[in-house]
Amino acid sequence: MQKIVRVKLSVEAYVREQFHKQMRSPSQCPNCGRFHRLWALGYYQRYTTGLLGKAIAFLVRRFRCTYCRMTVSCLPCFAQPYRLVNHTTLEAFLKGRHRGRDVEAQRDLLRRYLHRFVEWQPELIDIIGHRFGRASPQEDATAFLRRAVAICGSASELTVHLVEQFRTTCFKTYRCHQVSFAR
């Protein structure tokens, strides 16, 4: 499983401070719901973009539940699940700030992300309903995404909310966010 963890660090600071070593286990297993059953398992490497739009490697902490045996990855909130570009750059792109070095460096990929969201939006609305209010019939998918980001306060918080409340993301529902009944 994957849990999005709120951290107040950029990816650069996270790497510099080796924050992955300070990551604590969630108090509750997101799969079985048991408390204080997660133990450190290891790390895996992921990439996200930094302030200049270049890919930066960082380590993600993993834990295993002693009860249900599921692993839980604690993905820092600056990174998007299964996406390279970080939330800050995505948000700048959505707001029309295309002149930043990070947005310019990832413009083609950001356009593909937006296209993926447009394709996914009808299914996402089926999952979340009118959680972000009812849209006007003329509202397009981009306007919906901007509105959802504004309501949540940031693209990062939108992702945290979607994963925690609906077990989905802005781009797809992934198995790592779903509960497993295996034991």
For the residues shown, what is the average pLDDT? 94
Strand order of the largest sheet: 1-4-3-2
- Encode the helix/strand succession as letters: EHEEEHHHHH
Shape: globular
Structural class designation: alpha+beta
For the secondary structure, the number of strands is: 4
* Percentage of residues in strands: 15-25%
Radius of gyration: 17 Å
User: Unreliable segments (pLDDT under 50, ≥5 consecutive)?
Assistant: none
Whole-number total of structural domains: 1
In DSSP terms, counting alpha (H) and pi (I) runs of 4 or more, how many helices? 6
Q: Characterize the main sheet.
A: 4 strands, mixed
Distance between the termini: 14 Å
* Helix content percent band: 25-40%
Question: What is the fold's blueprint, element by element?
Answer:
Layout: E1 2-5, H1 11-16, E2 38-49, E3 55-65, E4 71-76, H2 87-94, H3 101-105, H4 107-128, H5 141-152, H6 155-166
Parallel strand pairs: 1-4
Antiparallel strand pairs: 2-3, 3-4
Name the features.
4 strands, single chain, alpha+beta, 183 residues
Your description of this structure?
By secondary structure, the chain is of the alpha+beta class. The chain contains six helices and four strands, in the order E-H-E-E-E-H-H-H-H-H. Strands 1-4-3-2 form a four-stranded mixed beta sheet. Strand 3 and strand 4 (71-76) form a beta hairpin. Helix 5 packs across helix 6. The longest helix has 22 residues, at 107-128. The protein is globular, with a radius of gyration of 17 Å. The two termini are 14 Å apart. The model has no long low-confidence stretch (mean pLDDT 94).
